[in-house]
Every structure is written in structure tokens, then in C-alpha cells.
Amino acid sequence: PAYENIKVEVVGSKKNVGLIQLNRPKALNALCGPLFVELGQAVRDFDADEKIAAIIITGNEKAFAAGADIKEMQNNTFSHNTKKGFLKDWEDVSNCGKPIIAAVNGFALGGGCELAMLCDIIYAGEKAKFGQPEINIGTIPGAGGTQRLPRYVGKSKAMEIVLTGNFIDATEAERMGLVSRVFPVDKLLEETIKLAERIGTHSPLIVKMAKAAVNQAYETTLKSGLQFEKAYFYGTFATEDRKEGMTAFVEKRPPNFKNE
Ligand code: HXC
């Protein structure tokens, strides 16, 4: 499909990494409704494409995304938001079964920070800045910021970020556990592609199960998460790829996974 607010490309030496670049540079990639419809479509397409092992969402050097589009939502009302289900398109990203990695250079603010947190792994460039500045404009995070941020960084830091609206830099974000690694600005994308390619060497079926199991830790209680994990762990023993992985180890050869 032809997109206006994003650019979509297949990258990596095996052409198995789906790259989505947010592309509203003049508005610092503010996340307007049409952008999210396109982003959802692109994520669903890559999720359905058997050749794609992992997905990357990125922006540009100045901004990953500076938040929901303030100009677009400025005149929204409570009843409009409720009737239209404002922000409902965001669920497409969190429903994706394949790993999604956020490669964040520049600003990841408000909805931009929330979009990064919807992803499974966040890599950042040295000049990245994260924040939930909604409080500055008289509102609060609305796409998971008050719920996911405490799960990443704990209550005290999440409260500080949400209640002050202050930004945190990449090093601090890494120290807090919001970001898993920080790279020089111009190395970020290639390092993120390497990560996606590394994930792409494994069985896509088992990767999907592993992702679903880790997500249980964020979405359920410990008890039900452990039950889910056990069921999935046992479940891997019903797959060809589990058999192949262990056989290859014993035969001292690389595995040849079939996604079965
Ligand atoms: C719409 C935005 C925007 C946004 C920036 N722009 N952020 N437009 N929505 N969120 C536009 C500006 O209006 C301007 O366009 C252009 O991008 C460049 O921005 P500047 O402000 O001139 O750049 P700079 O001085 O470098 O400042 C960068 C900035 C600042 C610190 C990131 O733009 C900023 O504070 N932006 C808003 C950040 C924010 O509050 N985000 C949370 C949004 S609420 P023009 O054409 O005017 O020059 C939110 C709610 C989440 O996300 C709810 C669930 C999704």
C-alpha cells in the first residue's frame, strides 16, 4: 500500500526484517490518527508475512515521535473521544505476535514514549529524550504511560516522570531499565537491525511463544503467568522446531528450523 505518514521497507541481509519509519518530520512525527491507521496496517501486514522475523519502528534523528498530535486533538470532547474510541487504533501494535523493536533517536514524548513502550525492546541513540509531558498541557498519558512506565522503572521514577513532565536522557533511561541499550546516533539503526536479525535466526514459532510468555509477566499475576509459561514450555515439546533444536545440539550442528 502507498503510505503518507510512514515509510515501510524490508531490510537485513536475509530480507527478513520489517522496517517502519514514522514520517511526519515537520511535526516531529506527531502521532495523528491517519498515521496510526497506517502504522496498524503495516504492523498487521508484517505480522502476517511469513518471510518477516521481526519488526522495527523508528523515526528520524530529531524525533522518534513527539506525542499524539496536539493540533488534531485540541478540540476533542469527552463525548467525541468516548463515542469514537479515540486511540483505539493503537491496539494493533500491541496485538502483534512477532517481536517489535523501537529504535529511538531524538524525542520520544507522550504518545511517542508510549508507542516505544508498546514495543518489546527499546534501543536508543545517545541523544534520545523520553518523557510523559502530558501534564504540561493539562492531560495525562492515555496510551499506557501510567501503567507501562511503572512496570519498566518502578513507582517513584514513573511518578516523577508523569507528575513533572520532565524529560530523561538516553543514559538515564538505560539505567532505569526503560531502554535496553544505547548507541551512537548514527549506529542505532544498524545495531537494531542486527538485533532483529539475531532474533530471526531462531524458530519464528518459538519466538512467538517466548514473546507471549514474557508479556504475561506484564499483563497478569505471577501465578497465572507461571501457569501460562509452563503450558507454553510443555507446548514447545509438541513442535518440530523443539525437536530439531535439541537434536542439532546433541549432533553438534546448527539447527534448521522449519517454523513448525
Ligand atoms: C503536534 C507537534 C507536536 C505534537 C511538535 N509538534 N510536537 N505538533 N503535536 N505533539 C510540531 C510543532 O508544533 C512544530 O510545528 C514542529 O512540530 C516543531 O516543533 P517545535 O516545538 O518548534 O520544536 P522544538 O522547539 O525543537 O521543541 C521540540 C519539543 C516540542 C520539545 C518536542 O515540540 C514539544 O514540547 N512538543 C510537544 C510534546 C508533548 O507535549 N507531547 C505530548 C503530547 S500529548 P509548527 O508547524 O507549529 O512549527 C500526548 C497524549 C498521549 O501524547 C495520549 C495517548 C496517545
Structure explained in plain terms:
The protein has helices at residues 33-48, 70-73, 78-84, 91-94, 111-118, 145-153, 155-164, 170-176, 188-199, 204-219, 222-236, 240-250; strands spanning 6-11, 17-22, 54-58, 63-65, 100-104, 107-109, 121-125, 129-131, 168-169, 181-183. It is an alpha/beta fold. The chain has 2 domains: 6-199, 2-enoyl-CoA Hydratase, Chain A, domain 1; 204-250, Lyase 2-enoyl-coa Hydratase, Chain  A, domain 2 (Orthogonal Bundle), CATH 1.10.12. A 6-stranded mixed β-sheet has the order 1-2-3-5-7-10, with helices on both faces. The protein has a 4-stranded mixed β-sheet with strand order 4-6-8-9. Helix 6 crosses helix 7 and helix 10 (204-219) runs antiparallel to helix 11 (222-236). The radius of gyration is 19 Å and the shape is globular. The structure holds hexanoyl-coenzyme A. Hexanoyl-coenzyme A binds next to helix 2, strand 6 and helix 5. One of its GO terms (cellular component) is mitochondrion. Pfam families: ECH_1 (PF00378). One of its GO terms (molecular function) is enoyl-CoA hydratase activity. One of its GO terms (biological process) is fatty acid beta-oxidation.
Shape descriptor reads globular
CATH T-level topology of the largest domain: 2-enoyl-CoA Hydratase, Chain A, domain 1
Give the uncertain stretches in residue-range form: none
Number of domains: 2
